[in-house]
Amino acid sequence: MKVTGTSIQQLEKDRPRARCRKWRLWVSTDEGRKSRRFAGAYKQAQGALRDFVSELEAQVPNADTFEAYAGSWHRWRVESGDFSPNTMAGEETCLNVIATSELGSMRMDEITPDDCREALLWLKGNGQKRSERKASTMGKIHQVMNQVMKQAVMEGKLARNPMDSVPRPKAKFAEREALSPAEIQLFLNRLDEMEVDGRVIALYLMACLGLRCGEACALRDSEVVGGMAHVTSTVRSADDSVGPPKSHAGVRSLPVPPRLAAKVAEWRERRERLGIADAERLCCRVDGSPISVRSLAGWWRGEDGYEGAGEKLGCYGMTLHQLRHSNLSMMSRHMSLFDLQRYAGWASIAPAKIYVHEDIDSVTRAVEMAWA
To answer: Which fold has domain 181-364?
Structure first.
């Protein structure tokens, strides 16, 4: 693209140029005039105009739509085998959502930061019939959009990543809805009224150790020994394959509380009677076959012909994953944030902030102990 002329238009007409902070940058090319808004001082606008010219001169035409280019990018990532099925399934979901916006049908070389911002706003609100999408979901959509654009720049198909100036939605660190310690005990009491099986044990593991659903389903019988549970793997919900936990920090050993130990012993006795004592997974069916994450979730919600175990146990409207949140919320009152990070299997301390509670009694005890 050949640049034939440039100019800077002052948008705040009632201010002298030295105090104006809103401008429009104009560049004339052999393909027509192009413009861009800029906020800042005049000298900064001059620098931004030079950058604008450099981008246009280096621009490589790319007639692919975002949807088409992103689709080929995603297929390459799937075929590479470098990413987990769960990651690829989540990425595909985000791309399908983005394709419902106008951005999906736009040419890659015509997408601007404003187009990206408008698409994200639409997807957050108008693109959702029931209610506004959560900040965490929008963060994942933003991440995928940025990855697609970044790859196009790396391949020389775009001169600039339009997502560079689009901020990621801020995550809201609010306390998660969780069962109180007393409600956890009541939940376990109700669970004890059911005949013990692999599904019951999976719920016990989530409520008593704060395991993720996939970690509970993957736990081997041999990994619960000597009063400890050794978490080394997880079941991926996308394809039921077994692999390492979500991060390296997910490999951890946790003390087994007495109530859980007693329930595991009860299940092992029943496994002996059923003739499945040698089944590899602790959370297995009565025929010894593994329990998948999807079937456990369906049993909890009451889908696919299953009775809704969640409601039967008094957990109305709760997701299965909230059992983990309930346990972590309870444990956060007895651990430092760093210990909670190790206990939960998080790669960073940031998620622990979700479980910080206002507890003046705990603060008072700490001060009294420090000055005793």
So the answer is: hpI Integrase; Chain A (1.10.443)
